[in-house]
């Protein structure tokens, strides 16, 4: 009996140490940290850094096997003004953010590895995403919109796989500068780019150049009108409603399913309290 008790205690202690944590970042001060970088620095492999709504003006680098999770691209924005890039990723997963770089020729994301999923990279003064030499990993269900450079750009050899993405109204869509380098793009849409839609890409299964039919071209209304590119993503994955995955931000296995708040009304009460009324739109 004593032996059994000792074994139970050892197992319990080991289990507790393996529990992943959720670290909260809130620019308004309600979380564990105010800056995304501080949350990442505090995290260890397996943790999730959850970023609450706000505009975070900082450069972010992710090299740990953690999940960096925003609160929706409509509400959680990483913006940088004075240097490039805004985000560098070489490990882990980034999801549910809007990412911008407004410095001269600024890049939104330099991608070395990991997973970039269900994010919007827009209004960068340079390229939206640059694939680094030797990069590996996956970019899926992202939208690259109105960047002054290309949506995704590379001039290096890499083995990154891109699918279910939309690159629209940039200078180029998916642009591989040299024929010996690579962008592997499948089940993605390039539309309305002033230069090339797909240039020197490989894979090229299921790609289209049709109007994606966004409800509106901003972070808060990037869901799709039918037919657009609904149900044209890879058949290997489904959307939250069980249908074939859509291209773009609201598609795929990591699609955000929470409602989007469109307006909030605060009304003072005679008793000294406040009535809060909110309107929201569900995307599923």
TrEMBL record:
It comes from the Bacteria. Coiled coil: none annotated. Pfam families: Beta_helix. Transmembrane segments: none annotated. Residues 79-206 form the Right handed beta helix domain. This is Right handed beta helix region.
């Amino acid at each position: 009996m004593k032996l059994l008790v000792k074994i139970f205690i050892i197992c319990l202690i080991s289990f507790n140490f393996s529990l992943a944590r959720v670290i909260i970042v809130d620019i308004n001060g309600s979380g564990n940290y105010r800056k995304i970088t501080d949350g990442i620095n505090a995290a260890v492999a397996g943790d999730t850094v959850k970023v609450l709504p706000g505009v975070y003006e900082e450069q972010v680098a992710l090299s740990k096997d953690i999940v960096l999770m925003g609160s929706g691209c409509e509400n959680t924005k990483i913006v940088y003004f004075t240097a490039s890039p805004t985000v560098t990723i070489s490990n882990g997963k980034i999801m549910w953010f809007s990412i911008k770089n407004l410095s001269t020729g600024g890049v939104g994301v330099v991608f070395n590895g990991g997973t970039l999923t269900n994010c919007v990279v827009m209004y960068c003064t340079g390229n939206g995403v640059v694939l680094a030499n030797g990069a590996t990993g996956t970019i899926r269900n992202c939208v690259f919109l109105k960047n002054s450079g290309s949506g995704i750009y590379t001039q290096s050899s890499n083995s990154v796989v891109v699918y279910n993405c939309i690159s629209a109204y940039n200078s180029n869509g998916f642009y591989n500068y040299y024929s010996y380098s690579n962008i592997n793009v499948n089940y993605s849409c390039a539309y309305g780019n002033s230069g090339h839609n797909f240039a020197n890409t490989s894979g090229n299964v299921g790609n289209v150049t049709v109007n994606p039919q966004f409800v509106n071209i901003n972070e808060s209304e990037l869901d799709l009108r039918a037919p657009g590119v609904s149900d044209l993503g890879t058949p290997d994955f489904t959307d939250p409603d069980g249908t074939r995955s859509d291209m773009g931000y609201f598609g795929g296995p990591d699609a955000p399913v929470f409602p989007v708040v469109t307006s909030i009304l605060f009304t003072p009460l005679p008793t000294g309290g406040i009535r809060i009324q909110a309107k929201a739109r569900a995307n599923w």
